[in-house]
Structures are given as structure tokens and as C-alpha cells.
Design a protein that fits this description.
Rossmann fold; globular; FAD/NAD(P)-binding domain; six-stranded parallel beta sheet; 20 strands; 17 helices; binds NADP nicotinamide-adenine-dinucleotide phosphate; alpha/beta; about 20% strand; seven-stranded mixed beta sheet; 2 domains
Length: about 475
């Protein structure tokens, strides 16, 4: 059988899914790319901060992939709800799961679910107009907010809380969030790290951007940057330029004169949340109790946060928990509960004993965990597709009973009334960008699945009013 007759279903149309599709097409395979939403691009559409349009322009690369012969997009199809893994195995020589890590890690502390405490993942999905989160309510009337975590998502959400209304107005922030963020009362955001400045997971451009906000001064107490002996020695010996530059940037911030901007973003380190206490209306969060930490190496040499026994209380009416993502299991697919990932060896889906199934693969965050930038997924896709090519060579792919591509389309049309294709997405895209032009924004996002399906299938679709 030539590669051209080998057909793959890639599940999840985010960066990992698109890079995998590109690699599979390069290998001569045919690819059907599925997404649970009618729209493609995953976290590029629903995760990347709206004030980072350059990062979003990577979709041009994905559009080129979508234009290649052998590629089809099926939107609005949820694996596990609309279709089953076994039905895919009956129709494809292989499945590659690129579903990302869609849920948040939990702190596991008292008061975590008080009103006013939210997972950053939900806040991000809300301001980016993900249909599943468009109806969430975020009370932004508090003047003090704490963002827990020292990664780039923590920086994104802190920045979004403090952007000037004019900076926000030119973005593709979903309309409901645009209005709420422009009215937000937040004056002071604390970014809280459980370890020290030399362990922060920020990348340099993101940390630098905090110092460039139009209406917020960045504040760091020099005492926060005094390094313990282990961190100092590690920093001295490390070749990690990102960490060194982060510490330099933080030192510059500590020395910086306040510029008299009306809002503040403050960075604090070596504090772990231990309880969210009430104090707001109806039991809403009023403050955060934290344990102070010191840094100690563990048995493997990693530098860990160890409690000192000293506690502090930080006043806040809004808490965003930004401590990383984890995956959700898919029915019938081996899952590592501890790591929150699909079990795999180098991208081949395997069970607990390491036995790999024929024709099932995994790529992106659900394979390796939520790490790296968008481009990291390209190398990851190259690695997984290399395994696929090896298996194809050795005839170790799945043997589907019904590999007919037209049959797939018929089956899906019967199963999913709102199925969208690439042409349908292009119609949604035209609709959103046309509306955006009139407002000086890249696009005005549709946030209801029903509106997306209407825009995809009815060329004269007019936006509902009011939007929500
Ligand atoms: P991340 O980079 O892994 O950061 C997670 C943070 O949460 C770390 O500071 C971690 O501290 C902290 N944390 C974990 N468990 C905690 C706990 N129980 N208590 C307190 N703190 C805890 O994750 P992320 O920010 O979600 O980002 C995910 C990936 O997307 C990253 O690779 C990131 O660079 C990328 N991203 C990139 C951009 C961009 O390029 N502009 C934007 C957004 C996201 P420890 O280090 O101590 O574990």
C-alpha cells in the first residue's frame, strides 16, 4: 500500500495537531483533522493573550497546511461524545491524539473554590471567547488581586487585568470580557511564586513586557531578590540564559523609580498559598494565607520550596490560580492519572506495561505535559511522525475495515448535524474579521457554537443582537 492510501485522524486542531498534519502530509499520508469546536487553532485562538497578535499570526502557517491536497477539517466533532475511538479505528490506519491539557491543576487548600477564586485557565478561556466559558462570571470589582504561579500564563492574566482600556480596545478580546475588563477596578496585582526569582518559569520577553505597561508600575522589593546560597550557586554555574536574564530584569525593576502610574503589579517570591479566607460578600475571598518558604535541594538535586513555618496574610478580593494545566482522559485511551497525560513511549500510545497499540499516537501537551512555546510542538510532531513512519514501514499500523474517505464524510454528516469543514471555518473567519474591520480590531469573535455553525453554513448570516 502506498502512503497516499494511508489515512490518519488527528484529534485536536491546535498547534500540535496542525504540525502533525503537516508532517503526515509530508510523508504522503492523507489527514482528517478533527476538533470539538467548529473553529480550528486551539490555544492560538483560545489561549494566546489577545494583546499578542504577532504570536497569533502563526495561523498563516496552519492555513498553508490546510490548503494542501489530502487535508480535510471536521469541526464540531467531539471524540468520546459524538464519535468513539473504536469508530475511528474502523475507518483510519492511525489516530494521533493532539487534544492538549484542558483542565487546571488544583492547589488542594481550604477555600480554593470560594467565590472570587478562579483557575487562570478559565479566565483565559473566558476573555478569549471559548464557547464553553463565555457564560462564566468574573467579578472584577476588587481593587486587589493575587495571581498564584510564576509562569507565562500568570503574566498573561496579570497583564490582562491591568491593560489600559485603549490597549484592550484594539484586540480580539471577546466582547463580554472586553467590557468587563475595561470596567475592572483592580488597582494592585501581586504575582506570587512558591520558589525564588531564579526558579521562576517566565520567559524574558514576557517578564520585560510587565515593565512596559501603560498604566501600571512594576514593583519588586529588593529583599525579595536576595538569593539563598543554593540558588546563587546555581545561577553562577548555570548556562541557562533565560534564568540569568530574568534575575537581571527583576533587579532592574527593584531599582526602578516608580513612574507614578495609577496601577501596580508587584512580584513576591518564596510564598505558598495555604488557605483562601473569606471576607468578601457572601463568603467571597477576602485574603490569602501564605506560608513563607526557603529553598533546599532535594535528593535529586532539584531546588524545592521548603516551609519556614512563618505565615503571612495578603489582602485580596480576586485570586487567579495559574499553576499549570493537566489533561483529561479520553474513553478507551490509556491515561497516566498522576501526570495527567496519555500514556506513551516516544509518542506511541502504550498501556501501563509498555505494550503499544497499533496505530495510536500522541503529540503536544497531552504527550509531554504543558511546556514550551508554540514552536516546541513542531519538533514534537516531527518526533511522533518519525515513529509513525517507522511503523508504516514495518506494516504495524491499524487495519481499518472501512477506509473509504467519502464514507467518513457521510458517517460524520449523519452523526454531527453542525459539522463544519475548512470552507465553513473560512466563512466564520470572514464574518469575524469583517466585523473587526469596522471596529479597528483584528476580529470580533463569535462565542456561541450555534452562531459559528450559522456563519459556517449560511453565507448571509447576520450577528445576533445583543451578542450574548
Ligand atoms: P508553567 O510555566 O509550568 O508555570 C507554572 C507555575 O505554577 C510555576 O511557577 C510553578 O512553580 C507554579 N506552581 C505549580 N504548582 C504550584 C503550587 N501547588 N503552588 C504554587 N505554585 C505552583 O505553566 P503555565 O504558566 O501554565 O504555562 C504553560 C506553558 O505555556 C509554558 O511552557 C509557558 O511558557 C507557555 N506559555 C507561553 C506564553 C508565551 O510565550 N507568551 C504564554 C503563556 C504560556 P514551580 O516552578 O515551583 O513548580
Amino acid at each position: 500500500m502506498s502512503n497516499g492510501e494511508i489515512r490518519f485522524a488527528v484529534i485536536g486542531a491546535g498547534p500540535a495537531g496542525f504540525y502533525t498534519a503537516e508532517q503526515l502530509l509530508n510523508g504522503g499520508f492523507a489527514v482528517d483533522l478533527f476538533d470539538a469546536l467548529p473553529t480550528p487553532f486551539g490555544l492560538v485562538r483560545a489561549g494566546v493573550a489577545p494583546d499578542h497578535p504577532k504570536i497569533k499570526s502563526v495561523t498563516r502557517v496552519y492555513e498553508r497546511t490546510a490548503a494542501r491536497p489530502g487535508f480535510r477539517f471536521f469541526g464540531g466533532v467531539e471524540l468520546g461524545a459524538d464519535i468513539a475511538r473504536e469508530e475511528l479505528l474502523a475507518r483510519y490506519h492511525g489516530i494521533c491524539y493532539a487534544v492538549g491539557t484542558s483542565t487546571d491543576n488544583r492547589l488542594g487548600i481550604p477555600g480554593e473554590d470560594r467565590p472570587g477564586s478562579h483557575a487562570a485557565t478559565e479566565f483565559v478561556a473566558w476573555y478569549n471567547g471559548h464557547p464553553d466559558y463565555a457564560d462564566r462570571a468574573f467579578d472584577l470589582s476588587a481593587t486587589r488581586a493575587v495571581v498564584i504561579g510564576n509562569g507565562n500564563v500568570a503574566i498573561d492574566v496579570a497583564r490582562m487585568l491591568l491593560l489600559d482600556p485603549e490597549e484592550l480596545a484594539v484586540t480580539d478580546t471577546a466582547d463580554h470580557a472586553l467590557e468587563a475588563l475595561q470596567r475592572a477596578q483592580v488597582q494592585h496585582v501581586t504575582l506570587l511564586g512558591r520558589r525564588g526569582p531564579a526558579q521562576a518559569a517566565f520567559t524574558n520577553p514576557e517578564l520585560r513586557e510587565l515593565g512596559e505597561l501603560a498604566r501600571a508600575d512594576v514593583v519588586v522589593d529588593p529583599a525579595e531578590l536576595e538569593l539563598d546560597e543554593h540558588s546563587a550557586a546555581r545561577l553562577e554555574s548555570t548556562g541557562d540564559k533565560v534564568v540569568r536574564r530574568n534575575v537581571e530584569l527583576l533587579r532592574e525593576y527593584a531599582l526602578r523609580e516608580r513612574r507614578g502610574k495609577p496601577r501596580r503589579i508587584e512580584l513576591k517570591f518564596l510564598r505558598s498559598p495555604i488557605a483562601l479566607l473569606g471576607g468578601g460578600q457572601d463568603g467571597a475571598v477576602g485574603c490569602l494565607r501564605v506560608m513563607c518558604n526557603r529553598i533546599e535541594p532535594d535528593a535529586s538535586g532539584d531546588l524545592r520550596a521548603v516551609p519556614t513555618g512563618e505565615e503571612e496574610v495578603l489582602e485580596c478580593g480576586l485570586v487567579l490560580r495559574s499553576i499549570g494545566y493537566r489533561g483529561r482522559p479520553l474513553p478507551g485511551v490509556p491515561f497516566d492519572e498522576r501526570r495527567g497525560l496519555i500514556r506513551n513511549v516516544g509518542g506511541r500510545v502504550c498501556d501501563e506495561e509498555g505494550r503499544c497499540s497499533h496505530g495510536e499516537y500522541v503529540v503536544g501537551w497531552i504527550k509531554r505535559g504543558p511546556s514550551g512555546v508554540i514552536g516546541t510542538n513542531k519538533k514534537d510532531a516531527v518526533d511522533t511522525v518519525a515513529r509513525i513512519l517507522e511503523d508504516a514501514e514495518l506494516s504495524r499500523l491499524n487495519r481499518p475495515e472501512q477506509p473509504d474517505p467519502d464514507g467518513v464524510q457521510q458517517w460524520l454528516r449523519g452523526r454531527v448535524p453542525g459539522l463544519t469543514t475548512w470552507a465553513g471555518w473560512e466563512a466564520i473567519d470572514r464574518f469575524e474579521t469583517t466585523l473587526g474591520v469596522s471596529q479597528g480590531r483584528p476580529r470580533v469573535k463569535l462565542i456561541r457554537v450555534s452562531d459559528m455553525i450559522d456563519a459556517a453554513t449560511r453565507p448571509r448570516f447576520r450577528a445576533p443582537s445583543p451578542w450574548r
